[in-house]
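In practice, a research group might receive sequence data for several interacting partners and want a quick structural hypothesis before committing to experiments. The following worked case mirrors that situation: the sequences arrive first, and a predicted assembly follows.
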Amino acid sequence: MSLPILAAEGPNGPQLAADINEVIWGSLAFFVILGIIIWKAGPAVVKALNGRTERIQREFDEAQAARSAAELKLSTSSADTPDLGSEKRRIMAEAQETATRLRVDTAARAKAEAEAMKERATSDIQNQTRQALADLREEIASLTRDSTEVLVGEQLDAGSQSGLIDTYISSLEGA
Amino acid sequence: MSVHSSYADAIHSVASAEGDIARTRSELASFSRALKDNGELRTTLANSLIPADTRNKIVDDLLQGKVSDTTRGIIAMIVTAGRGGAFSEIVDEFAAKAASASGNRLAVVRSAVPLSADQQARLATALAKQAGGPVELQTEIDPSVVGGVVTTLGDTVIDGSVRSRINKMREAL
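A structural hypothesis for the assembly, expressed as tokens:
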């Protein structure tokens, strides 16, 4: 509200200053300064813009190179990396083979130990049987000896005893 | 000289002084046999923890009126000295010394029944022929012989007992 009021107050209308010379000289100074700026700062600005463009281009090129290198590395590592599926299958196969071998070995060992235990048990039984038979034979022999001693002792009267002694002495006399 | 030999010499001296070596030797041999057959009696007489008087009382009870005073005195000496455990060895040593002193070799003759005088004479003659010198018999009654005779002459044993034949039969079984 105040601007139209103020413009309405100047002789050159609302858009221009009241003194036209001020406008002319102001404009002239503006363009002079503008020219100086363009003259002096223009190349630097252009150079800066060009440098920025070059830097962006360089960074872009570097990114492209990095990408290419990464793609190359990826393709190389993909070629070098074995197939995970086949590796998994190989590992599984090896594990199964190991498990099978262990199972077979364990079974063979268990069988051998069982055979050994069986042999030992058989041997023990045979030894115990032999020992029992020997003990029985010894017992029978002892009983036979004891009973024979008793029987013979009962059968040996004085005459028989004297006869045995005479036989003994005769054998020494004849020796 | 061993301890057994010392005791054997002492016994021989006593028996010689009493003039009855043969009887003493026979009675000591019989008592030695009794000790061999009775482990409890042997252990008791050898036990130094039992007072000597008690051990001698046991001996007195066993031998009262069965042996000469000389033999009884010798046994008391051995038991009192605590040598009851070595009684058999001492008596064997004494018997060997007695036989040797008379110029004879000692033959220990064990039988289940006593040998007659004629049998003893024949046996002594037969053994002397084998030993190459006079032999003195020490006869012992040993029921374990069952029948026949077992003679020990030095290190040689001539076994003609029924028991040895039974043992051979047992081994054959």
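Before designing any experiment, note the following. Chain B has a mean pLDDT of 89. The domain at 3-97 of chain B is CATH 1.10.520 (Peroxidase; domain 1).
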